[in-house]
Amino acid sequence: MKQEKQGTGMSGVQGYRPIPLTIDDDYTFLDRGRWFRLASGAFRRFAYGVLRIYNRLFFGLRVQGRENLRGIRGGAVTICNHVNMIDCTFVGCECGRKKPYFPTLKSNLEIPYIRKLVEYLGGFPIPETPKAFRSFSRKIEEMLREGKWIHLFPEGHLVPYCTELREFKRGAFGYACRCRVPVIPFVVTYRENTGLRRLLRRNPSLDLTILPPVYPRPDADREESLRLMELCHRQMKEVIGRSRQQGRKVPDTPAASCPEGEEETVPAV
Prior knowledge:
- The chain is an alpha/beta fold and 269 residues long.
- The protein has one domain: Glycerol-3-phosphate (1)-acyltransferase (3-Layer(aba) Sandwich).
- The protein has helices at residues 34-59, 87-92, 114-120, 130-145, 171-179, 195-200, 222-245; strands at residues 6-9, 12-15, 62-64, 76-80, 102-104, 123-125, 149-152, 157-158, 183-191, 205-210, 263-264.
- Strands 3-10-9-4-7 form a 5-stranded mixed beta sheet.
């Protein structure tokens, strides 16, 4: 019997035969066919409806600041601290009709069956070569100018239940400046489990705070992307600080010490 190859993806190491994905300069990143768009739209509405319930029940997710998403026209870059395997769905469930697209690991699109689910949810692969990455960046900018929302993790990799806000990469803020679109920060914080959840869950319950959009100045340049990055980092760090001041204790877990993450999601730009 032929042994299956081991592949990695959003669920860790699993036994499956990966379907190799080649990303070159001509790769389209997202299927723009009419039927795909219809199927993707229907699937995303269904999936986010289910995920909203799942996130509330399983993670105890509570959301604050939904009013900050009202009145935003055109494209936008959403960002969040990356502390959960499916925290991109926390963001997606709150964006209404503006369901964000998100770059994901190339390996997630090499998993049989899962690859289509990722694509239907708006995922597209992060390239591994500089030449393909230029095409990737052009695609993101094209989508932002078309009025779409793109979700990026400026910390660059996943560290489950990390209690600190890590250093940001500048890429997300560069896209926002070049396309003249706002950055919308989302922040995941923790609270101590209560009631039955205290018995059933080791990890803490989660809160999601949506901050007001931050707009680049009209004369945006490279320094403006740095200003946006520092401003968003400061605001998000303040949310995490306030959560601690409110006495929201977090159980000691191995992941909470914030070791170096292994799952890279958005490369430095």
